[in-house]
Design brief:
- By secondary structure, the protein is of the alpha+beta class.
- The chain is 37% helix and 25% strand.
- The strands form three sheets. Strands 3-4-5-6-7 form a five-stranded mixed beta sheet, with helices on both faces. Strands 1-2 form a two-stranded antiparallel ribbon. Strands 8-9 form a two-stranded antiparallel ribbon.
- The longest helix is centred in the N-terminal third of the chain and has 29 residues.
């Protein structure tokens, strides 16, 4: 996947290091804006409402910030020759971040698996799991990354270090 030639590093899909850093910074800025809007809503509305209420308010706040928001986006699934429209992502923001909204006592592993599945099927890298049922929303925010790749040097080398969803689950 990652090859080294004459001290130069080439990345998969002809992406340059600048492209990767620029994309990461854009997603980071977008997730910061989403988190800020969610905290603002949580402070005003407090826990206890339905997911749909928080979703509608979050869409409003994100659009006020100038972000592009898709609600209840169908997640494409192909199983052999069957193409069921069986899944929905609560929000997709700027075509780069999936947001799943929950209102439950605690987040379960299946909620995290749902978000990772959406990321994989939509071919996106970053997702946020927001649980508005927490007293402090900062305790209810989970940022998840699909097929995380660290291109930083490891022990002085330029090897690719990849953390998949499976290894992420093992470290928790």
């Amino acid at each position: 996947m990652l090859s080294t030639f004459s001290g130069r590093v080439s990345f998969p899909h002809e992406a340059t290091a600048v492209d990767l850093i620029t994309g990461c910074l854009a997603r980071s800025h977008t997730t910061e804006q989403i988190n800020g809007a969610a905290i603002k809503i949580h402070r005003r509305l407090v826990p206890g409402l339905l997911e749909s209420a928080y979703e509608a308010c979050l869409v409003y706040e994100l659009e006020q910030l100038g972000l592009h928001v898709q609600r209840q986006r169908a997640v494409p699934l192909i199983y052999e020759s069957v193409k069921p429209e069986c899944g929905l992502a609560d929000l997709v923001v700027n075509r780069e971040v999936v947001v799943e909204i929950k209102c439950k006592d605690m987040i379960h592993p299946v909620d995290q698996a749902q978000l990772l599945s959406c990321l994989r099927l939509l071919n996106l890298r970053v997702g946020l799991l927001l649980n508005f049922h927490e007293v402090s929303l900062k305790d209810g925010i989970r940022r998840m990354v699909n097929n995380y790749q660290d291109y930083s040097p490891i022990e002085g080398s330029s090897r690719l270090h990849e953390v998949t969803a499976e290894t992420a689950e093992k470290t928790r």
